[in-house]
From TrEMBL:
Organism phylogeny: Eukaryota, Metazoa, Ecdysozoa, Arthropoda, Hexapoda
Ranges of biased composition (kind: Acidic residues): 477-489
Sorted UniProt keywords: Disulfide bond, Endoplasmic reticulum, Isomerase, Redox-active center, Repeat, Signal
UniProt xrefs under PANTHER family: PROTEIN DISULFIDE ISOMERASE, PROTEIN DISULFIDE-ISOMERASE
Protein name: Protein disulfide-isomerase
Annotated region described as Disordered, given as residue ranges: 470-496
Length: 496
């Protein structure tokens, strides 16, 4: 630990003393006693409100320290700080902390929400954009080389006339992209060094081809699309740091390759996958997922896969109606990957729906067991009200509901007009029904088969009233937003 002495006077007592702001590996440690001083004494401060037990905070910690060091090496006035929100509860409440990590940037004491990435480069680039010009002026060849070497991705605009319309479009695009540094040059020697003839934009990267030149007209939209598609590796590894880039990016179609690093799959398959990915850049994002990671087992379950099926691949489209696709042949040969992705792009693939085998005794217990194959026959029986719980085996709320739901089934087991049923929604999927949170309870009403979602208390009495009232008691508000769902903090089916 290092100590930065911050001295101030306490007016009420006229006694001078020093408060100490600790620095943990270059990151200031703020508390309620020194927070105001730390903010007012530094023009630019990025503050992370964290919880020691938070997995995302633990993943961010080393990158946060690296970012602080990079800024210190650049002799930047920007400081990074952190607050243990579980200890400093008053500070957390004062600054509206509702989740971890919450990161805020203070500029001359005024806070704004941090919207950058979670790697050291992304943090530094975001901060430099917020405190300086959107594109750094590069005068010499050495300036450019140093600028390129400093980041994994760097974008440079080559314009002999920096006031041209193309240059203005470049600066406008740079102003909207915080994850990567932008530079601009008009120096003849730089143009010659990088073989540039005329106006253009070049993206330099420390992976894949190393360099990409913008093709087509230099418009703000084209530049943004160019940076989006070229700034990611041809095959991007899925982890905590890249998840937001993958699932929050412009490309919504993803080829997911499940590989075991321990079994040598990375070395065996990735080179061929990169070659194929070149032909689909901007259309399909290629993602590798290390199946050895314990955190990734839920992703396998989401696709109804077992670990012994690895290596394997799936395609997913992350639009409003999410769709998944499974190849006919499981091998990850270059030709098979290319054929699978091309068929998807050409619209030749049919969605893959998960389904369990129907148990022989599915209707022998008071709570009937539904799978994809018998769902419609049971749920859309016009002579009966059918209550269905869509659950996940690992869901804690579902486990708590189980004995209550069994009691409900027992109550109505002899009814000629009411059926109580359940379906494992992690292993069975329906084209007409998308389940986003667990448990979800729906009533399929007799007669018109109207679907009524339950939003009442999950008690035996509440569920009984819901059934006996034909779905009027406890009915969910139509088109209720997900943000208001009481289980919105639970794992969602669309969260990989």
């Amino acid at each position: 630990m290092m100590f930065i002495k911050v001295c101030f006077l306490v007016a009420v007592s006229s006694i001078g003393f020093c408060d100490e702001i600790k620095s943990d590996e270059g990151v200031l440690v703020f508390t309620k006693d020194n927070f105001k001083t730390g903010i007012t004494d530094n023009e630019f401060v990025l503050v992370e409100f964290y919880a020691p037990w938070c997995g995302h905070c633990k993943s961010l910690a080393p990158e946060y320290i690296k970012a602080a060091k990079k800024l210190a090496d650049q002799e930047s006035a920007i400081r990074l700080a952190k607050v243990d929100a579980t200890e400093e509860t008053e500070l957390a409440e004062e600054h509206g902390v509702k989740g971890y990590p919450t990161i805020k940037f203070f500029r001359s004491g005024s806070p704004i929400e941090y919207s950058g990435g979670r790697t050291a480069d992304e943090i530094v680039n975001w901060l430099l954009k917020k405190t300086g010009p959107v594109a750094k002026e590069l005068i010499s060849v050495d300036d450019v080389k140093g600028f390129i070497d400093a980041s994994n991705v760097a974008i440079i605009g080559f314009f002999k006339d920096t006031s041209s319309s193309a240059a203005k479009n470049f600066l406008a695009a740079a102003n909207t992209i915080d994850d990567h540094p932008f530079g601009i040059t008009s120096t003849d020697a730089v143009f010659s060094e990088y073989n540039i003839d005329g106006e253009t934009v070049v993206l330099f990267k420390k992976f894949d081809e190393g360099r990409a030149d913008l093709e087509g007209e230099i418009t703000e939209k084209n530049i943004k699309n160019f940076v989006t598609s070229q700034s990611l590796p041809l095959v991007i590894d899925f982890n905590h740091e890249t998840a937001q880039k993958i699932f929050g990016g412009e490309v919504k179609s993803h080829l997911l390759m499940f590989l075991s690093q321990q079994e040598g799959h990375i070395d065996k398959y990735l080179d061929d996958a990169r070659e194929v990915a070149k032909g689909f850049r901007g259309q399909v994002l290629f993602v590798s997922i290390n199946s050895d990671e314990e955190d990734h087992q839920r992703i396998l379950e989401f696709f109804g896969m077992r670990k012994d099926e690895v290596p394997a691949m799936r395609l997913i489209r992350l639009e409003e109606d999410m769709a998944k696709y499974k190849p006919e042949k499981p091998d990850l040969s270059k030709d098979n990957i290319n054929s699978f992705v091309q068929d998807y792009v050409d619209g030749k693939l049919k969605q893959h729906m998960l389904s369990q085998v129907l148990p022989d005794d599915w209707d022998k217990t008071p709570v009937k067991v539904l799978v994809s194959s018998n769902f419609d026959e049971v749920a859309f029986n016009k002579d009966k009200d059918v209550l269905v719980e869509f659950y996940a085996p690992w869901c804690g709320h579902c486990k708590q509901l189980a004995p209550i739901y069994d009691q409900l089934g027992e109550k109505f087991k002899d009814s000629d007009t009411i059926v109580v049923a359940k379906m494992d929604a992690t292993a069975n999927e329906l084209e007409h029904t998308k389940i986003m949170t667990y448990p979800t309870i729906k009533l399929y009403a007799k007669g018109d088969n109207k679907v009524i979602e339950y939003n009442g208390e999950r008690t035996f009495e509440g569920l009984s009233k819901f059934l006996e009232s034909g779905g009027e008691y406890g009915e969910a508000v139509p088109d209720e937003s997900e943000e208001e769902d009481e289980d919105d903090d639970l794992p969602r089916k669309d969260e990989l």
